[in-house]
Amino acid sequence: MKKLGLAWQILIGLALGIAVGAIFYGNPLVTDILTPIGDVFIRLIKMIVLPIVISSLVVGIAGSGDMKKLGKIGFKTILYFEIITTVAIVIGLFAGNFFKPGLGIDMSHLAKTDIHQYVNTAENASHHSLADTFVNIVPTNIVQAMGNGDLLAIIFFSVLFGVGISVIGEKGKPVIHFLEAVSEAMFWMTNQIMKLAPLGVFALIGVTVAKFGISSLIPLGKLVIILYLSMFVFVLVVLGIVAKMCGTSIVKILKLLKDEIILAFSTASSEAVLPKLMLKMEQFGCPKSIVSFVVPTGYTFNLAGSALYQSLATLFIVQMYGINLPIWSQISIVVVLMLTSKGMAGVSGASLVVLLATVNSVGLPVEGVALIAGIDRILDMARTVVNVVGNGIASVVIAKWEGQFDHGKADTQK
Q1: What pLDDT was estimated at residue 315?
Q2: N or C: which end of the chain has fewer CB within 10 A?
Q3: Which residues contact 409 (CB under 8 A, 6 or more apart)?
């Protein structure tokens, strides 16, 4: 009998988790049992992410060691990220204006979620300038940056460290060999941890359904449907055009990343798939030096799914309160989101924090965020998938732009 693939195992875990959560809806005992299992799985993933990012990035950079070339790749990467996230924001605004998901919502029937823990962070974010973001890229203590999971600071250090190892020549070879071994060991650990993915997914989705129940979706069902449709259009049309311009197809990339897509959707965690995403994009024909820089950087700068969600959710709140928001105010939302969404990596509940900061900056009631926070997990599942697919395609774009994309490898993928 043929063994079930990982994607099927995760889907079965997802279905069983939904069933168990629905049956035991509101039962705290089920939540108490399943929460530690889901938390352990996510912790196992987070445990290996930083060693993989550092070792892969240093080895990749040391292999090229050309600062001019690195600067060019960095500029192209940030430029592409800014363009694609702006397109996502505009699509979110268009969907919100066209479908008007917030009209006719009876707020008295909505469950209000406590968002007090995010409010202070959001207030700080609204005063967080672009200059602050760039200053914070440079770590004062790399060990502390690792402890905080500050990806931008870690990337900055790893790039400089990789260039330094390249410059010192033969003396740096032992460090490269050591980090290559670290990278391989981490990917072996990734493969072992992925065997637990169906169990982790079962626990995580079971807790979500048991806490909130399927019924919590009904009052906000229109928002959920419109968000999912908008994400679907963004991936197939926008990212599809981008993939076509790179000489490949979005369907081929989606097939390549099917395991990662299902896992990202089920866990609502981009970090859960980062190691495998990097490995898959290398297998697809993108050089290690580009993948190891673009993908981790994209986890901060290329959150197209989150950007689309935040623009649509802002308009949802506007419509729910019956506020007339002119086009100039909507353009200001685009500008605010372009800035605030860039410094939020590693912040707990980052999308809610950015949404709070955005709502606050255009003078909307922050209580509106509390009304949709209860289903944030359901919305998060969709935006996480788009973030993951977007960062995979970004590797292809930069590799193609640099003339280093291996079409031969891409063509061999089923």
Answers
A1: 92
A2: N
A3: 283, 284, 285
SS3 220: coil
Domain map (residue ranges) of the chain: 6-412
Going by C-alpha positions, the residue among 269, 217, 230, 4 that lies closest to residue 109 is 217
Q: Which amino acid is at 46?
A: K
Direct distance between the N- and C-terminal alpha carbons of the chain, in angstroms, rounded to an integer: 22
**Whether the Cβ atoms of residue 359 and residue 317 lie closer than 8 Å to each other:** yes
Do 17 and 203 form a contact (C-beta atoms < 8 A)? Answer: yes
**70-91 pLDDT per residue, tens:** 889 999 999 999 899 999 999 9
pLDDT digits (tens, 9 = 90+) for 229-265: 999 999 999 999 999 999 999 999 999 999 999 999 9
Rounded to whole angstroms, the Cα distance separating 294 from 73 reads 9
Q: In this model, does residue 111 exceed pLDDT 80?
A: no
Q: Which residues, 6+ apart, have CB-to-CB distance to 69 below 8 Å? A: none
Q: How far is CA 101 from CA 104, 105, 126, 320, 369, in A?
A: 8, 8, 26, 8, 15
| pTM confidence score | 0.89
- Measuring CA to CA, how many Å separate 179 from each of 57, 175, 275, 394? 10, 6, 15, 25
**How many helices (H) does the chain have, and how many strands (E)?**
21, 0
Give the separation between CA 392 and CA 413, rounded to whole angstroms: 15
Rounded to an integer, the average pLDDT of 269-287 is 92
Cα–Cα distances in angstroms (integers) from residue 91 to residues 76, 95, 226, 287, 396, in the given order: 23, 6, 11, 31, 23
CATH 3.50.80.10 fits 6-412, yes or no: no
